[in-house]
């Protein structure tokens, strides 16, 4: 106990943190000291998966898209991510800014020019004319950065937000398996799930940081701030980025992360408006309209197309579409955890619509402005020089800006935006990693955030220097396939939980309470807290129910209506039957049924009527096979009233001509 006083306080969960660190360090060691062997082996594994199991990625992503769209139009869409009266913690603009910066981040800057130009100049589409290649480039860029990408993030984010804020579970991937694992969430299975999420997040941020630093250094060379993009320059860039990211993460999401995300999105919009204004404006707005139309028109064919009948296109397809699906899936734990953490108080419908539509719309506008401008300049002013640089994606953005006014200023502003994108990705990543490692502890010491940031910077530099970033990226893509299966299980668990949620909040009072007043409250209370044994129910059916039905049968017979009491096998099943020749018989019965009781309620010491995991109840049933209800709290007179209510319904329905298909039993017998 004395020694613990000198140890720093920590919220790390050993079952998650220790195996994660061991795996991260082991993979980094292999990628750094054996980059060629490791890279070759992992590349072969990735190629085999992409070639033979590409359909699995296609179907997984398709399921995610249509699953979320179905929820939007379902009755579950109005459910709040939190208590029913919860309100959003962040303004709409702050919320969108943060989820957008975490979801796409630096990728928008890196691929905004290079991807459309790559599709435009790819030999795979060489048989097309120039106009067709331009449209094709925009279409596939929209496809890769549109609804499908955000559906992947949306499934993880929605599952996490729902189980965290609605079920009051920790913000961790294991919580999404609550309907399956329940109490086992806190065991080895739960730790394994969170360990996978931590490693996936760490590797994704490390590779992004490493590759992005290369683009940043290329931009700094372009504007003349540094002479070369050597390793020494990259060290300085990484240290500066991580220092600011750590400071932002330690100030909390509501301060540093929110401010930088808003700054990020504002800067990106200003840069986009600059290109739109000084680029081929009329052409861009026209192609945006056509591009959205093409995307919507070919949405289904793009979604399901595996190019099985076009083997000549499959290498391109594996390199772009399947790689993108794998990349988005591998990033889903990180992005999903972050956007779930900022989405308390949103409804499911609001969450899905915002996550799918708004970032997708912005991506379409962004990719049109930059990508189509680059293609237009390549055709009209650059004489193909831009498309010839697609292999050097790090420099392509800055070469593109040379064809616009004030290239030095715009390149410097682009570097600033890239820098801020890096910081927002890194600080939210640090926040998420620490949240996973500490099992979403409410208050973690700041030194933990500092340690994660320092480790990210160190390993990124080690891999940059050793040339192992590509191996790390490849391994991340490989892990996407098993995680896609995990995400499908998320969908299954979420549906199960939503069905229970809807049932819980929409279930009305028991029919047995419809006659209640305060007059017999002590008797009611006694019945509620009584132990629900089979003997108790049999006694209730044999006395109260049987007495009520017998009295009612006698009254029916006195009115000239033949009614009888039936016993089926034993006194635990008694019914009143009025038999007919032309219409269905009227039957009102009560039987003894057993029902499973929640194990949670069995363990609750302050519930006196539960002794085991089964309880017996007197359940009503009817001649037309409708679902009955619990009549345990009816008095004898209330049972009589309930039978009369059902008999009045029976006569009302039998008198309606529209119901003859159900009630005309005589014609059915003749046939």
From TrEMBL:
Assigned protein family: Belongs to the BCCT transporter (TC 2.A.15) family.
Subcellular location: Cell membrane
Identification of the protein by name: Choline/carnitine/betaine transporter
A Pfam family this chain is assigned to: BCCT
Topology of this chain in the membrane: Multi-pass membrane protein
Spans through the membrane: 21-43, 55-73, 93-113, 142-165, 192-214, 234-253, 265-286, 317-339, 351-377, 413-437, 449-469, 475-495
Superkingdom of the organism of origin: Bacteria
GO molecular function: transmembrane transporter activity
Source organism per UniProt: Dyadobacter fermentans (strain ATCC 700827 / DSM 18053 / CIP 107007 / KCTC 52180 / NS114)
GO cellular component annotations of the record: plasma membrane
InterPro entries: BCCT_transptr (IPR000060)
Annotated keywords: Cell membrane, Membrane, Transmembrane, Transmembrane helix, Transport
Keyword Magnesium: no
Main location: membrane
